C-alpha cells in the first residue's frame, strides 16, 4: 500500500489550488527512468471548491490522479508562457472554451469522410500540446483538463472525453469551465513546481534532468527577459516572431512619437515577474486581434491607442443589472437583455425622438469619441478603446468587407459600445478589434446587445404597426428597417429572436436582401 513521502498544497481550494504528493511505489517499475520513478504520486486540482481530479476506479472513489509526475512538472515549465498568455484558439469562431474548441478543431482536421487537413492537424496538435495536461501524462490516465489565458483571467476547462484504451471501470466525473484570477493561478502553480522540483532534487542531487527543471523554473520569474515572448503569445503572433518583431517595431515607433505621459501610460506591465497584464500596449494586440493585421494596420491602431480625446467619457460606472442571473443565459440571451435594459435606462424618451435610436447623438453626449479609420484587414468592423482615465474611442473601419452604409455604421457603433460597457473590466486598458478572431462569446454578446439596443421591443412593435403589413413580407420588412435605420439582415435576426417570424421566414428575408445587394452592385455606372 502506498504511503505519502511528501505533499505540498498551494493556493486556496475555494478558488484555485493544486496539491502534489509523492508516494511510495508498490509496483514493479524498474524499467522506468529513475528520475521519473522518484516522482510517482498523486495530483489534485481544485477550482471553486471542486476537485477536478476526483474519479471512480473499480467502484472506488479516488481523490487524485496517480502517475509519474515529473513529466507534468516539466510540461508546466515548458509551456508556462502560452498557458498564461495565449488566449487564441486554433481556428477562428470556435466555441469559447478550450475543451469544446479542441473537439471542434479535431473534427475540422479529421472529417468524417476520412480526409485529413494536415495543416489544420498540425495546428491542432501544436495547440493541444501547449494547453492539454494529458500531453504530459505519458501513459497515465489524467482528466481531460485544459489551461488557457482568457482575457484577464485564467481558464480551466474540463471535458469527459476518454483516452483510447481507458478501462470501462475508470472514469472522471467533473465537467465544466471555470475562470479564475490569473495571478492567483500563476502563484499556485509556480509554488508547487518550485517546491516539487526542490524536493525531487534533494532525493537525486546529481540528476541532470532535475537540475535542468529547477533552473528553467527559476527563469519564470524573470519578467523583463521574457516580456517580448509573452507579449508575442498575448498578441497572437507567437508562430512567427519575425512578423511579431516587425509589428513591435511599428508600435515602438508610434509610441516614441507620442507625448511622454501618453507613452508612459501605454507601456505594458509585468507583475510579480511572471506574467504580462495589459496596459494599452498589450491590449492593442491582445488575443482578440486578427492574425491578418498588416504592419500598416498595427501602426494605425497604435496611433489610435495613444490618441487623447478631449475629456473622459461619461459612461456609467455601474449599470445596475442583475448580473447573477446571467450565469444561466447564453451570450446572445445575455447581450439581448443588456441591450433592452440599457435602452430603457438611458435612451427611451431621450434619444429615440424620431422613432429610431439616435446612437451618434447619444455617444456624443456621453463624450465617446467616434472616428473613421482605414484598416487593410477588411474583416475587422471596428475597434473600441478605453484607457485608465476613462477616455473612450470607437473607430470604424471604412474598408470593412460588409460596407459602410448607414445601417452598418450604426450597428458597428452599438456593437463597440457593448464592448465599452460590458467588457471594460477585463483589462487595465481595453482595446478590442471586432472580427472573426475575437472570442466568439464576446462577439455574440456584443451583436445581440447592438440588435436589442437599436431594435428594442417598443420601437420594433411600433414600426411593425406603422408598416401595416406582416414582417415576413419583404416590402414590409424594408419599411420597418427604414424606420429603425437598420439593415434587413439584422432586422430579420431580431424578428426571429423575438418570435415575430419563423427561422425559415427570417432566412428568406436575408436571402432576398443579399440578392438585392448583389444586383445593385452590378448595376452599370451612369455616365
Structure report:
The chain is of the alpha+beta class and 527 residues long. It has three domains: 4-220, no CATH class; 282-454, no CATH class; 456-522, no CATH class. 45% of the residues lie in helices and 17% in strands. The protein contains 20 helices and 17 strands. The strands form five sheets. Strands 1, 2, 3, 4 and 7 form a five-stranded antiparallel β-sheet that branches. Strand 1 and strand 2 form a beta hairpin. Helix 15 (406-422) packs across helix 16 (440-454). The radius of gyration is 26 Å and the shape is elongated. The protein starts with a strand and ends in a 6-residue tail after the last helix.
What's the quick description here?
By secondary structure, the protein is of the alpha+beta class.
Largest sheet: 5 strands, antiparallel
Structural class: alpha+beta
N/C terminus separation: 92 Å
Q: Total number of helical segments?
A: 20
Relative helix content: 40-55%
Radius of gyration: 26 Å
Global outline: elongated
Write down the domain tally: 3
Number of strands: 17
Q: Which stretches are poorly predicted, pLDDT < 50 over at least 5 residues?
A: 260-287
Instruction: Report the portion of residues in β strands.
Output: 15-25%
Mean residue pLDDT: 83
Task: Break the fold down into its secondary structure elements and pairings.
Layout: E1 4-12, E2 16-23, H1 34-37, E3 40-47, E4 50-51, E5 55-57, E6 60-62, E7 65-68, H2 70-78, H3 80-85, H4 98-109, H5 118-131, E8 144-150, E9 153-159, E10 170-172, E11 176-181, H6 182-203, H7 208-218, H8 223-235, H9 241-256, H10 260-266, E12 269-271, E13 275-277, H11 280-284, H12 295-306, H13 331-347, H14 359-365, E14 369-373, E15 382-386, E16 392-397, H15 406-422, E17 430-434, H16 440-454, H17 457-467, H18 474-484, H19 488-497, H20 503-521
Parallel strand pairs: 14-16
Antiparallel strand pairs: 1-2, 2-3, 3-4, 3-7, 5-6, 5-10, 8-9, 9-11, 12-13, 15-16, 15-17
Helix pairs in contact: 2-6, 4-5, 6-7, 9-12, 13-16, 15-16, 17-18, 19-20
Amino acid at each position: 500500500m502506498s504511503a505519502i513521502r511528501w505533499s505540498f498544497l498551494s493556493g486556496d481550494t475555494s478558488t484555485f489550488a493544486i496539491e502534489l504528493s509523492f508516494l511510495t511505489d508498490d509496483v514493479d517499475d524498474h524499467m522506468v527512468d529513475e528520475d521519473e520513478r522518484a516522482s510517482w504520486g498523486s495530483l489534485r486540482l481544485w477550482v471553486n471548491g471542486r476537485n477536478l481530479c476526483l474519479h471512480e476506479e473499480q467502484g472506488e472513489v479516488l481523490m487524485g490522479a496517480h502517475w509519474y509526475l515529473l513529466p507534468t512538472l516539466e510540461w508546466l515549465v515548458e509551456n508556462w508562457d502560452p498557458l498564461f498568455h495565449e488566449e487564441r484558439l486554433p481556428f477562428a469562431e470556435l466555441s469559447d472554451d478550450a475543451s469544446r474548441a479542441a473537439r471542434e478543431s479535431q473534427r475540422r482536421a479529421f472529417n468524417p469522410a476520412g480526409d485529413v487537413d494536415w495543416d489544420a492537424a498540425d495546428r491542432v496538435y501544436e495547440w493541444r500540446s501547449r494547453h492539454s495536461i494529458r500531453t504530459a501524462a505519458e501513459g497515465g490516465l489524467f482528466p481531460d483538463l485544459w489551461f488557457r489565458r482568457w482575457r484577464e483571467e485564467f481558464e480551466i476547462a474540463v471535458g469527459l472525453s476518454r483516452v483510447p484504451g481507458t478501462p470501462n471501470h475508470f472514469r472522471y466525473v467533473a465537467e465544466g469551465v471555470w475562470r479564475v484570477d490569473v495571478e492567483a493561478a500563476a502563484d499556485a502553480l509556480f509554488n508547487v513546481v518550485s517546491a516539487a522540483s526542490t524536493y525531487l532534487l534533494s532525493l537525486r542531487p546529481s540528476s541532470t534532468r532535475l537540475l535542468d527543471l529547477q533552473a528553467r523554473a527559476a527563469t519564470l520569474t524573470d519578467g523583463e527577459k521574457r516580456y517580448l515572448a509573452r507579449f508575442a503569445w498575448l498578441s497572437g503572433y507567437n508562430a512567427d516572431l519575425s512578423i511579431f518583431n516587425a509589428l513591435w517595431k511599428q508600435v515602438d515607433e508610434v509610441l516614441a512619437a507620442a507625448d511622454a505621459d501618453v507613452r508612459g501610460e501605454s507601456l505594458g506591465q509585468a507583475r510579480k515577474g511572471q506574467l504580462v497584464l495589459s496596459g494599452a500596449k498589450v491590449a492593442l494586440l491582445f488575443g482578440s486581434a486578427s492574425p491578418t493585421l498588416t504592419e500598416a494596420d498595427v501602426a494605425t491602431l497604435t496611433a489610435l491607442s495613444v490618441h487623447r480625446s478631449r475629456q473622459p467619457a461619461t459612461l456609467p460606472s455601474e449599470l445596475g443589472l442583475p448580473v447573477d442571473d446571467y450565469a444561466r443565459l447564453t451570450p446572445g440571451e445575455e447581450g439581448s437583455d443588456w441591450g433592452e435594459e440599457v435602452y430603457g435606462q438611458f435612451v427611451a424618451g431621450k434619444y429615440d425622438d424620431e422613432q429610431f435610436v439616435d446612437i451618434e447623438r447619444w455617444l456624443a453626449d456621453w463624450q465617446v469619441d467616434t472616428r473613421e479609420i482605414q484598416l487593410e484587414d477588411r474583416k475587422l468592423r471596428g475597434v473600441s478603446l478605453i484607457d485608465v482615465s476613462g477616455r473612450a474611442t470607437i473607430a470604424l473601419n471604412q474598408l470593412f468587407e460588409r460596407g459602410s452604409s448607414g445601417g452598418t455604421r450604426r450597428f458597428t457603433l452599438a456593437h463597440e459600445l457593448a464592448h465599452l460597457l460590458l467588457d471594460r473590466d477585463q483589462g487595465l486598458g481595453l482595446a478590442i478589434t471586432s472580427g472573426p478572431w475575437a472570442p466568439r462569446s464576446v462577439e455574440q454578446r456584443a451583436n445581440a446587445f447592438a440588435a436589442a439596443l437599436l431594435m428594442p421591443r417598443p420601437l420594433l412593435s411600433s414600426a411593425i404597426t406603422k408598416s401595416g403589413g406582416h414582417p415576413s413580407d419583404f416590402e414590409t420588412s424594408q419599411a420597418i428597417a427604414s424606420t429603425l435605420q437598420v439593415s434587413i439582415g439584422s432586422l430579420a435576426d431580431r424578428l426571429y429572436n423575438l418570435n415575430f417570424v419563423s427561422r425559415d421566414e427570417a432566412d428568406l428575408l436575408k436571402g432576398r436582401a443579399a440578392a438585392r445587394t448583389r444586383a445593385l452592385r452590378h448595376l452599370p455606372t451612369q455616365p
